[in-house]
Structures
1.
Amino acid sequence: MAVVDREGMVVSANDSLGALLGTAPDELAGAVAADLVDLTADARTWHAYREVLRGRQSRLRCARRLKHPDGHSLWVQVTVAPLPAEDRAVLLSVADISSRRELQARLRHLQMHDPVTRLPNRTLFFERLSAALEAESYEQSGTGRIGLCYLDLDGFKAINDTLGHRVGDRLLAAVAERLTRCADEAGQARPSIPLVARLGGDEFALLVEDSTGTEQLAELAESVLEAIQDPFDISGQRLSVSASIGVVERHAAGTTPTALMQAADTTLYWAKADGKSRWTLFDPERNAHRMTRQALASTLRPAIDRGEFRLEYQPLVGMEDDRLHGVEALIRWNHPQFGVLTPNRFIGLAEEDGSIVPLGRWVLRTACRQARRWQLDHPDEPPIFVSVNVAVRQVWDSDLVADVAEILAETGLAPHLLQLELTESAVMGSAGRPLQTLKALSDMGVRIAIDDFGTGYSNLAYLSRLPVSVLKLDGTFVRGFQYDDRDSTATRPNPADEVVVEAMIQLAHRLGLTVTAECVETSDQATRLRRIGCDTGQGWLYSRPVPPDRISELLGTPGVQAGVGNP
């Protein structure tokens, strides 16, 4: 302790203070107290100290790091408090807290580092990342950019599960050593060394502050891939793993830790989806597509209840008479944010999350109700059938037979006026429940069509055993007919195309099936298809998909091709 007058000069000091500061107590008398314990180091402490000396503040307490004359450093806690008014002095107390600070430092190190790899852990990583993204840290100096390599190990789980966690932990420690070596090499001749951290499990991150661009991050990612691909010798076993790395590099301004990690996590997923053992750079356009996909997936089920879907119908026209024989129901999503969406934008999502079942049920009911309405509105015309696409998951995840029976009974539509389309890859090789479902529907009188025929398995031997009544030729075959005899400059396709199509049509007819050609766009195509025996056609030559009222206009029209065209 020491007594300090109101001017800040030491009046007297005890032996303990002298020993702590490495100075004789009598030599402390007359010294400037603030200089002894470094109270002038920062403005706030210096101001508070002077306020205590003037009697305007009751107490000051702070921690200071002092240099002992013998060379070692020590941490002290300094307390300044006023003595009774008549003494016109303050009491300076100095306590050695070096051991306490050392313990705190050790505890913090344990708290902030991974015990397996001894790398900074997730907590310390985010602390450093947050500090690096604070404006004052990148506005005063550096490049103002930040980069991150976010990686996990391909095949680590198999090693952990088969050889045990002990071997797995040793492998992680060995990986950490190689990552640290890569970071040290990358930091040579640069202002800072990338921070290597283990974020959990087999996930690691390399944080590059003041990055110079994507090229620097790409070089770092390449070096990491090469380092990890070399086999590891762990407990006498030679182990091989690889890594997938998501790379993000951008301006620090406007970036948050959450946004940077989300981008890195997304890019790591891309690297794995693209085949693993590679690095992938964050792509804003690809991410925007992913975000759109997620937005659609999250709103798909509620959209059914909100009535955001509608059906359009594309005519199926007889090749011989050019009359309307049926229509294919095609779903559209009137999305409030993204506008009108065609099936290729959302049907895959619906199949993934199971919403294809309620959506498919809605399509089936709406299409059957509309077909029955056309029949009632045009009693003098032959009724047209409606064709509805069915996903495989509808067969597995719902009672399709019961749904169809209920909807036909509810709408009053005859079973032979309903056609269900399944893709060739879904139908060919069907066994068990799918085959039983198809047979039950066929026995009910519903027509079964194979869509996009010729692009899947093409198991012709199996075809004869399926309860199928219609083949729809994929448009790739029909496009082979798209040339004009009168145009001598037109590039003619291989004559084998027409031979193949004719053979498929003859085969279908031998099996008692009818054939529909998709993507008929020109009258020349229609003529050739008619000549080789195709039964019905579908495509822009006849009509694009149209609302129900346009189909009503066609009923009774002698020539659909002339009646609709391309509205």
2.
Amino acid sequence: MNRTAKRSAGIIAALALGAGGLVPLTLSAAASADTGSYFERTATYPVYQNHPEGAAAETAAEISTVSADGQTLIYTDALSRMIGFVDISDASNPAGLGTLPLHQLGSAEDEPTSVAAYGEYVFVVVNNSKSYIDPSGRVDVVHIADRKLVHSIELSGQPDSIALSADGSYAAIAIENERDEDAGDGGLPQTPAGSVAILDLLGGAPDEWTLREVPLAGGTREKPVALDQLAQAGLDTPQDPEPEYVTINDRNQVAVTLQENNGIVLIDLPSGKITKAFSAGSVDLAGIDTQDDGKLDPSGSLQGVPREPDAIGWIQDRYLATANEGDWKGGSRGFTIFDSLTGEPVWDAGNRFERLALSQGLFPEGRAGKKGTEPEGLAVHEYRGVEYAFVASERGNFVAVYDLSDPREPKYLQTLPTTNGPEGILPIPGRDLLAVSSETDEADEGVRSALTLFSFGAATPQFPQLSSDPSAPVPFGALSGLSADPEAAHQIFAVSDNAYEPLIYTIDAGQGLVTDSLPVTEDGAPAKLDLEGISARAGGGFWAASEGAEGAGNTLVRIDVDGAVAERVQLPQDIVGTLKGQGLEGVAAFGAGEEEEVVFALQREVGGEDFVRIGRYLPASGEFSWYGYQLEDAGDDGSWNGLSEITRLSDGSFAVIERDKRIGENAKLKAVYQFALPEASASAPNDTVPLLEKKLAVDVLPVLERTNGRTQEKLEGLAVAGNGQVYVVTDNDAVKDASGETVFASLGAEAEAFALAPAASTAPTESAAPTASSTPTDSAAPSTSPSSTPSTSEGKGDGSAGAPDGAESAAPDAGETSAAEPATDDLAQTGVGSLWFLPLGLVLAGVGVAAALKARGNARGH
């Protein structure tokens, strides 16, 4: 069977496995893998692509709505002072339809705060306030088809959210009149007080609609006083309610959150009467991370935290779910379900929402001392007869999905990864879709505001691919290096970089489970290291690569089995002294005792050189030797390419990750290359460094694009586990200026991913000592010495990659592409075709994937 046929068989076998991965114990029993009751991401659309200025624009997709036919999504962009239109008729390929700048409706200073589609129209809620003390706003009625303004309705103050009744009779608008956080101590009260506006839609044309207002405070605009109902509810500052979010049930009851007042008010729409007001109360939290200290440490606690709810949604016309973001004095880091009849909570997430983020690598540690995950957005809707809650973490960049079959005991279903700052959650049940709009946009950091689409009906969740037990989380993030575990074939080790105190993680690779973490210490305290690579030693313990801010800080670190630093080995300063960061990135240790060797990779070129150095260190003698690795051309757009990992393969050759700096739709190079170390090397500063002959093994870009998210920049870790499987992982940058999503995937079997030398050439032999090159050379000469590690084959000088020495002796079947020489223009021959994600049983969806990858590879021209 040729290699392509083997991969096709692998795909079919993977499909036959179905939900063969781990199913978290916290999943709803009603949403088993057999029911197709999961959401999966179909597209991520950066909204700058819909902006007239393109990538140079600063955008922010916040709140969205959808046309009556479910084909056109409309979103607010407050930064650009416009609303945008996107064709979502193909949920896997959203297409921009352009924007409507608000200066065409009123003034260039107008800011859209919300949108809601209503028949052929869309309501555009506009803040046109002159100041905090003189707030004002309006609702513009725009015809969707031609984007013409039909009618404008003036409001008494600054609006925030809008909701429409299911029967089409009413719209409710929260008139927030938000506080000025820079006035005084930034707290309440600040005049004027807020209210709720009711738009009656019972008439014919928009100009016949009428507006009513429900005051939430008495007195005057300049001197408001508390209403008895709000004062008796025990709200924080009832004379200054600031309505935040509105929702309407099928009985035409409005529920509105008063976030800063930590309360909820119910209003009957037909009469405009306040029917109930109650406090959202407070919670005691334990088992959470409360310190911004560079540690993922869920051992903190908080007492008496006001919930301060933001978004709110009705459940079964009786219960209310709130996302408790907090704003002023609180934020309970979760969500709560209240009984609207009593005003009492019937369920609260406690620490579970936060621990979910900790267990899935999504906890924003830099916000631990504030409001943690900050659950802000929330929506409730029914799909195929089951009601679900969607709760968005503004800082953790995810939406958690819960089955609400029993509102008093919601069941966690899955996590949906988003881009940064998910704000608006838009269920589109008529098309089995969910849209999430994320507002954060930092073009310089590669983080772009985006719309993410998910479809309902998948058999298994796509995410997380790596996690720990949420009931007892092993928090992780910023993974920067992988290593096989010599003692357990199914396990690998990982390290995190200096985003956190250094830890060595143990991962059950087959299940994608982080099972343990080992602190790295020095003199009894957390070691000050920036761990970028890890390699388990044959006799126990580890070698690690610690990257320095400058050349002097680049250090090989020997760590014992208890995590204590046993030795630091500084790289030769006459070689790396000119480095200004971007130094040590990977390490591969092998052999034992006097025969132990440590091979390592730098990320970027040393000053004055046009290649990256691969180094070899012999602990027994302290000797260093060097090889040169030629990076691919990064182009002229200001990006760069570099190495981020090195791994020794079973035949003695090596694999490295080479990647560019690009992110998202701009990413071009995320790949694994293979080479062998020749006998010749450079051991003195003035020696000519032999250039290695590399061969493309796997284009990993299709893997990073597989689940339709924003392509991760930092492909960082690579390991071949004892079970023969090749694993890769991305660094999520500690959920800071990055989406925080961790991609952990198998590239299939080592023998499929790499061109390995025949087994006969891998018998244990004494490794040859590196020797200095006596003559200048472009590349390594093939070695025939039985005591040397495998050398590269011919093919030097043109940038092509050579196979490990001896590989050509394995003759391919007739008509088969040689394993030693995969066609460089056909990525279906590189091992990518047999991928499947871990750990939740996500498999490649369709036998046509191999052909699709082949076509993609041909299009890239590799």
